[in-house]
């Protein structure tokens, strides 16, 4: 068995691979220190797999806290791990769009799964999970309900600002004017989709395209991107949020041979 | 003649009642969910405090991000126009005004006759804004009033690497956990604000000799000091609450008279 751990800005993910298939996976909120998150998520995934620490032959860490995990036998960048994980789950994937809590990346792969090109935004919160979190809080809607709620809207509000804090203000103005919540929710999702699409325009996308990361679970954002790009995302056979951890586990396995 | 000036900002709203050029009464409140109603209520209280009825107010002018919420104002005016008018009132020799609000930093250049010459405002990005400073102070559990005292203690300001205000907040939380002192983080946040103002001033061309600092953030003495040092210029403090300047200017403009020296 091998273990992959991805310590993100908001959640920690772990995947256990056993003889080339996913044995267990776990996602949890991060603790203040990466080492605490890593230890907790390892414990949880071991429990889910019914395994012990001694069963793990190798462990690869990724994510922004990857260098602070003493029990990891190796570490890889998030870009490599997301590419690896996505290509491992589906060899037809040529483009990975990953929207995480604090960054957004677009990775282009060749037919062997090697990275051809990538672009990343980790400078501005717009087009990341944090933006969604701030804006859903501003309108008092649970982050998880933002996607389903937005689908009911037929007239999404236009959000013109790019900075999340200015967007918050704009959203509040819509609230003052008593605009329907579903229309604001749809506007919020579209604003994130637009920022992601703006990032993808810097590269040439190749099909099949998949969407990964926590934000991919927001159906409003994913449908928004599909519409704006005129494409359909290839569905993945496992949870899109664990892609980084999965890629790390695949690297751990490859490191053994 | 009695006039009213409304400045509906992104973080707070301010109302001034003015008779000729004299400030009768003023209020400054934080914006809330029922902003429109809150403004109405505050205005009512302000009038009641002066035993005035609404009809005795000859004219009202609104300015600021939410100026359109004041439906009973005669019209809306831009912030730079209001700032320039107020600035000229308290010091006719002022050449440039720096107004730092929650989200907007304005550079207002005033010509020798007290007319608005030129103005500039920051890009709509909250990096290094008043709101950013607030987020930092909140993360450190420091109240607005204490920012100055604490930041002044810093010998080694922490240079915040995140350009985005949202990310800076999480960066700061991890720095607190890593043991960086509050005063160093606060001083670093003030430095970020100063460099944002400097960048804007850099585009403004000749800013003259006499500068004034206004806006809610101007109430932080440590920021005033840092900015004055960075610019190597004196920054005049207005004779009334610096946060009220645009509302006061709006009320003065509502007086509608030609600009006279006080």
Write the layout of secondary structure elements.
The complex is a heterodimer of chains A (257) and B (262).
Chain A: E1 2-7, E2 11-18, E3 21-29, H1 34-49, E4 58-63, E5 74-75, H2 78-89, E6 95-99, E7 104-109, E8 115-121, H3 129-138, H4 146-151, H5 164-176, H6 181-200, E9 209-212, H7 219-229, H8 243-256
Parallel strand pairs in A: 1-4, 4-5, 6-9
Antiparallel strand pairs in A: 1-2, 2-3, 6-7, 7-8
Helix pairs in contact in A: 2-8, 3-5, 3-6, 6-7
Chain B: E1 2-8, E2 12-19, E3 22-30, H1 35-49, E4 59-63, E5 75-76, H2 79-90, E6 96-100, E7 105-110, E8 116-121, H3 130-139, H4 147-152, H5 165-177, H6 182-203, E9 211-214, H7 221-231, E10 235-236, H8 245-255
Parallel strand pairs in B: 1-4, 4-5, 6-9, 9-10
Antiparallel strand pairs in B: 1-2, 2-3, 6-7, 7-8
Helix pairs in contact in B: 2-8, 3-5, 3-6, 6-7
Q: Provide mean pLDDT of chain A, rounded.
A: 92
Q: N- to C-terminal separation of chain B?
A: 16 Å
Specify which chain pair forms the largest interface.
Answer: A-B, 22 and 24 residues
Sheet/helix structural class of chain A: alpha/beta
Helix content of chain B: 25-40%
Reading the helices and strands of chain A in chain order gives EEEHEEHEEEHHHHEHH
Q: Enumerate the spans of chain A where pLDDT stays under 50 for 5 or more consecutive residues.
A: none
Largest pleated sheet of chain A: 5 strands, mixed
End-to-end gap of chain A? 13 Å
User: For this entry, what is the oligomeric state of its chains?
Assistant: heterodimer
Low-pLDDT residue spans of chain B? 258-262
pLDDT averaged over residues of chain B: 90
Q: Main sheet of chain B: which strands, in order across?
A: 3-2-1-4-5
Secondary-structure content class of chain B: alpha/beta
């Amino acid at each position: 068995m091998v273990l992959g751990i991805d310590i993100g800005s908001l959640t920690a993910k772990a995947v256990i691979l056993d003889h080339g298939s996913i044995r267990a996976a776990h996602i949890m909120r991060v603790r203040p220190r990466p080492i605490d998150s890593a230890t907790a998520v390892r414990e949880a995934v071991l429990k889910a797999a019914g395994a012990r620490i001694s069963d793990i032959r190798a462990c690869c860490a990724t994510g922004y806290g990857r260098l602070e995990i003493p029990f990891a036998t190796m570490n890889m960048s998030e870009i490599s791990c997301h590419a690896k994980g996505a290509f491992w789950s589906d060899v037809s994937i040529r483009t990975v769009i990953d929207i995480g809590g604090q960054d957004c990346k677009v990775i282009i792969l060749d037919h062997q799964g090697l990275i051809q090109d990538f672009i990343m935004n980790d400078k501005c919160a717009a087009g990341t999970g944090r933006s969604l979190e701030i804006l859903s809080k501003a309108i008092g809607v649970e982050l998880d309900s933002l996607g389903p709620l937005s689908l009911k809207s037929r007239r999404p509000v236009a959000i013109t600002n790019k900075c999340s804090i200015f967007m918050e203000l704009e959203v509040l103005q819509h609230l003052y004017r008593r605009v329907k919540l579903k229309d604001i929710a749809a506007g919020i999702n579209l604003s994130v989709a637009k920022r992601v699409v703006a990032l993808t325009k810097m590269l040439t996308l190749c099909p099949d395209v998949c969407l990964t990361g926590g934000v991919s679970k927001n159906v409003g954002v994913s449908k928004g991107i599909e519409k704006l790009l005129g494409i359909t995302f290839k569905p993945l056979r496992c949870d899109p949020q664990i892609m980084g951890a999965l890629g790390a586990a695949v690297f751990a396995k490859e490191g053994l041979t | 003649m009695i006039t009213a000036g409304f400045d509906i900002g992104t973080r707070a709203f301010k109302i001034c009642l003015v008779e000729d050029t004299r400030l009768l009464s003023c209020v400054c409140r934080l914006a809330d969910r029922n902003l429109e109603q809150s403004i109405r209520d505050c205005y009512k209280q302000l009038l009641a405090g002066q035993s005035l009825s609404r009809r005795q107010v000859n004219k009202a002018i609104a300015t600021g991000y939410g100026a359109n919420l004041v439906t009973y104002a005669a019209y809306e005016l831009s912030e730079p126009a209001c700032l320039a008018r107020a600035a000229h009132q308290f010091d006719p020799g002022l050449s440039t005004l720096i107004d730092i609000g929650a989200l907007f930093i304005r550079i207002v250049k005033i010509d020798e006759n007290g007319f608005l010459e030129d103005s500039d405002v920051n890009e709509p990005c909250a990096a290094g804004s008043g709101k950013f400073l607030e987020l930092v102070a909140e993360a450190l559990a420091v109240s607005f009033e204490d920012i100055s005292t604490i930041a002044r203690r810093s010998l080694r300001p922490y240079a915040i690497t995140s350009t985005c205000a949202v990310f800076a907040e999480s960066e700061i939380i991890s720095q607190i956990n890593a043991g960086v002192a509050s005063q160093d983080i606060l001083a670093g946040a003030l430095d970020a604000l100063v460099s944002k103002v400097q960048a804007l001033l850099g585009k403004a061309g000749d800013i003259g000799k006499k500068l004034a600092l206004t806006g809610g953030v101007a109430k932080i003495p440590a920021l005033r000091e840092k900015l004055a040092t960075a610019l190597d210029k004196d920054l005049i403090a207005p004779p009334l609450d610096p946060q009220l300047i645009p509302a006061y200017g709006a009320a003065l403009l509502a007086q509608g008279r030609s600009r006279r020296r006080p």
